[in-house]
Here is the input.
Amino acid sequence: MLKALIFDVDGTLADTESTHRAAFNATFAEVGMDWHWSESLYAGLLDVAGGKERILYYWNLVDPLEARGPQVRATVERIHAIKTRHYEALLGAGGPPLRPGVLRLLREAHADGLALAIATTTTPANIDALLAPALGPRWRSLFASVCDGERIANKKPAPDVYLAALRELGVEAHHCLAFEDSENGLRAARAAGIATVVTPTAYTLGHQFGGALRVLAHLGEPALPLAGPLAGSQRRWVDLAALRAWHRGATLAAA
Ligand code: XBP
Ligand code: MG
Here is the structure.
């Protein structure tokens, strides 16, 4: 029986990585670093989950000697705090909307008594900056669990953040569905034993999604239907009936 839906944030709830990239570049300019992450470079850097880890990874690429200096960790923390401030300011000025079907499914699921959770690699302040405008200041009350990048040691593709969400939900993996946008995210959710629906973004279209329950352009809306009907139905947007049917199929296949 399906008891909970667990959502990734960046790329899944909203297509936020262009805003993250702009925040990183605004930070590098502010602190006087001659780094600039282009779309194509950033798409590759997204293989490294976590903004702090991404900064350190890139630093090792461009200046491995300096990247091993004694102050590097403190400098990365300082840069990342500035980046988070830029990201919050960009979202405050009008960030990307929630992706098609996300708000509708959150509301349908919550009304139907399913538990909702977030399992993300991003910084907690970023979740509020994205969801408060979209869901209101009391957005947190919609979710039984919010597990973010600062609460776990090993980021995606490690399963840690999903295992933490399962523990907080008090639900077993086979009673859940996860929603992700990236290969790392899919791997993390699958490693935690959770059947996963993938909705890639332009940054992750080329990723490998083997083992996904479904890979869809987005979750769809009556006003913004998918290009074709969902497999086995005439519906052109994902609703609870479709999720329950897919979850039943995954459960039978695993039996
Ligand atoms: C995506 C990430 C994050 C963001 C940047 O998280 O990997 O690192 O790219 O945010 P998810 P931070 O897809 O798991 O939501 O700079 O705060 O890490
Ligand atoms: Mg993501």
In short: The beta strands are 4-7, 115-119, 145-147, 176-180, 195-198, 214-215. Residues 51 and 110 are 31 Å apart (CA to CA).
